[in-house]
Specification:
This protein is mainly alpha-helical and about 55 residues long. It has helices spanning about 10-25, 35-50.
């Protein structure tokens, strides 16, 4: 399995999702009905897909 670096836009999207998850964990974004662990997991999955797909 060959891995490639994700594009800059995929990286930025995953970082923004991860920051939203951290802010939800701190209670700043309490209106999000999803647990912060799952939000950060989604950010990791987006980043992993960006590494697995070539040109994504």
């Amino acid at each position: 399995m060959n891995l490639s670096a994700p594009t800059q836009i995929v990286f930025i999207i995953s970082v923004v999702i991860a920051i939203i998850g951290v802010l939800a964990a701190l209670g700043i974004l309490a209106f999000i009905p999803l647990a912060s662990v799952w939000i950060v997991t989604i950010a990791f999955v987006v980043l992993a897909i960006g590494c697995l797909m070539r040109g994504a």
